[in-house]
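Continuing the series of single-chain predictions for the mutant panel. This is the parent chain; the variants come on the following pages.
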Amino acid sequence: MIIIDTAGRLHNKTNLMNELNKIGRIVERELPGVSKEVLLVLDGTTGQNGLIQAKEFKQIAGVTAIALTKLDGTAKGGIVIAVADSLQIPVKFVGVGEQADDLMPFVPKDFVEALI
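Parent structure:
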């Protein structure tokens, strides 16, 4: 397992995005055909910028799923609907706190009810 934390708004830093792309190429070269899941952790407080971030990270890192976090406050995370729909990326997890147990499987019905 490899965990890479890009600290959020990396998508507008060309050199850093190139480095992230390079990591992906090295993993593919060293472990060809290995099963990969690339999660984009999307902050529930993110607005329209979240769609731009997701597009860039999908293109560079091959994002395969979303983990939507910071839903323990007033954030609703509505941008995830646009991201999932326009980029065809499923939401796998939601985070409702700061502990490991606070990361839960995404349940669409529960999310929609909380959003509305």
